[in-house]
Amino acid sequence: MTEKAETMDALDSRDNAPSVKKNGQTSLLDSGEDFEVLDEDDIDDDPPPLEDAGGGKGKNTEKSENKNADMDPEPSGQVDEWLDVLGNDQLKKKVLEAGEGQDSRPQKGQNVKINLKTYLMDGTLVEEQPDLSFTLGDGDVFQALDLTVQLMEMREKALIQTDAKYAYGARGSLEPEVSPNAELSLEVELLEATDAPDLELLPPPEKIALASHKRERGNIHYQRGDYAFAVNSYGIALQITESSSKVDITPEEENELIDVKVKCLNNMAASQLKLDHYDAALKSCVSALAHQPDNIKALFRMGKVLALQGEYTEAIQTLRKALKLEPSNKTIHAELSKLVKKHSEQRGAEQAMYKKMLGNPSSSSGTQKHRAKSSWGLSWKWLFGATAVAIGGVALSVVIAARN
């Protein structure tokens, strides 16, 4: 038996380990989230077939195979080769028990159900999740599962080894308890795959629950710093809330859907801010305020976006409106004070620049006055001189006439 197969036998013998519950902290307005609890590729080809890759079989070969068959308890469907899913040796898949054929593979967007056992690479059982259900490709689970389950056949059992970047990443996890940058080994069995429900025919309570679930998944991505994945989850939730309905819906249910939608828009704006996508974040805030004009979080984030875009006057007006709705909010106070000060400094710098461009008005005024005064003085001197010359000329004429 190979060393990797021995590792699998060791994994199978482990007992379940209790998971540790996550302790959340209440979010602040400036953290950018509407969360109830907040702490803040190419795919390779199929594996090779099971048949022997060698040439013809002789008697010695047959005896050797019979001997190996007696020694190796592995099921006949097992494949020893690892599939390098992404071509970077960081996400690998190996078939333990073959499934029902490639035609039985699930499609992106379908709801799948799996049995999952998660291990550390030393064989420690982290978590066991029987009948785990999620929508394939929606980001409901970490990437390693989303990418590899698409390659599994119905009833297939597979072993997956993943780098931390496709699992719990540099932050690790409190529930289940996984240390930062931990590589994982996953045992997965694909149980079923069904088409997603028709949103138009979905009863309003189920639609609300589904949208809320996607939003909560977005919150998890946000907490982990995976802002692009968070935007994706919030976008899916928004599509659910905005979908038309062919079933009756009460005003209360409609308001609840709008409430979920506004929360998604607020959270999406927060994620877009983290990604420096200011235009998109502003659009999300505007959409949220179209439904709830006095939504504090939407006003606050809109003010921040406008400030980042250099629209200080409009940003200050927006934050003042938010502060008027919630005068005791220290976060809005601090943001508004900071923005007013920054705006004042900017105006001072602009005025200084304009003076430099146009020259010093006070100096120019003094120079002009001096020039005017000098010109006036020269005028009088010129007039006095001209008068004197004229008088002298007249006197001279008189003298000459008298002599004649």
TrEMBL record:
InterPro entries associated with the record: FKBP4/5/8-like, PPIase_dom_sf, PPIase_FKBP_dom, TPR-like_helical_dom_sf, TPR_rpt
Assigned EC number: 5.2.1.8
SUPFAM superfamilies: FKBP-like (SSF54534), TPR-like (SSF48452)
Residues annotated as transmembrane: 382-402
Catalytic activity: [protein]-peptidylproline (omega=180) = [protein]-peptidylproline (omega=0)
Biased composition annotated in UniProt, kind: Acidic residues: 31-49
Region Disordered, residue ranges: 1-80
Ranges of biased composition (kind: Basic and acidic residues): 1-15, 59-70
GO molecular function, one term: protein folding chaperone
GO biological process terms held by the UniProt record: negative regulation of apoptotic process
One term under GO cellular component: cytosol
Keyword terms of this UniProt record: Isomerase, Membrane, Repeat, Rotamase, TPR repeat, Transmembrane, Transmembrane helix
Residue ranges of TPR repeats: 296-329
Pfam family of the protein (one): FKBP_C
The PPIase FKBP-type domain, residue ranges: 109-194
UniProt KW Nucleotide-binding keyword: no
The protein's enzyme class: isomerase
This protein's name: peptidylprolyl isomerase
Natural source organism: Amphiprion ocellaris
Lineage: Eukaryota, Metazoa, Chordata, Craniata, Vertebrata
